[in-house]
Amino acid sequence: MNNMNEVAQKVAESLLQIKAIKLQPKKPFTWASGWKSPIYCDNRVALSHPPIRTYIRQKLSELIQEEFGSVQMISGVATAGIPQGVLVAQDLGLPFTYVRSSSKDHGRQNQIEGEVVSGQRVVVVEDLISTGKSSLQAVQALRDADCNVVGLVSIFTYGFSEAEKNFADAKCRYLSLCDYDTLLAVAAKHNYILNNDIELLEKWRANPANWSPDHE
């Protein structure tokens, strides 16, 4: 989209406003991975705010149409990518599937839920990109099912170098509506953080696995 910077700013403002993204440079969160983080992102909060939910749906749909052309199926990454993917699939009038982190251990033992047709051009929808590993597991599951995964879209990306490498290695293009640099600029502009917090937040992004606010 030609106005991607405008979209990124609007998404950042919206997610900060509804506290879907929280920034606490001096009182970091602990992720499931054990990483200490000055930021926590839960885009599922946007689902409870219809105007923001609608804007995200529209912009994801536009991004897919403009960047990937003719698409035959939308697939969401379980779990947070499922509702966003359903909204986009409905908007575009396309079939929808979703991909579990692993196959079920009962019933048909599916990892992909929904009908898959060999050779379908698929775009994967995710809510958030950190390292990209879980997203790429979904991409690989679809490829193993003989789908033509043309790319992945998300609401937000941290822009980690590890994610860039992982997607490049997997030969999977990915695009996000909003990114970490835009978020920091918008957060500073609207006083969600102090200007002198930005350096600390940038250092975290450069080395998140080993970051600590005690030795910033």
UniProtKB/TrEMBL annotation:
Binding site for 5-phospho-alpha-D-ribose 1-diphosphate: R100, K104, H106, E126, D127, L128, I129, S130, T131, G132, K133, S134
Listed EC numbers: 2.4.2.10
Cofactor: Mg(2+)
GO MF, one example: orotate phosphoribosyltransferase activity
Amino acids binding orotate: S130
Domain Phosphoribosyltransferase: 49-172
Quaternary organization: Homodimer.
NCBIfam families linked: pyrE
PANTHER family linked to this entry: OROTATE PHOSPHORIBOSYLTRANSFERASE, URIDINE 5'-MONOPHOSPHATE SYNTHASE
Protein family membership: Belongs to the purine/pyrimidine phosphoribosyltransferase family. PyrE subfamily.
Function: Catalyzes the transfer of a ribosyl phosphate group from 5-phosphoribose 1-diphosphate to orotate, leading to the formation of orotidine monophosphate (OMP).
Protein name, UniProt field: Orotate phosphoribosyltransferase
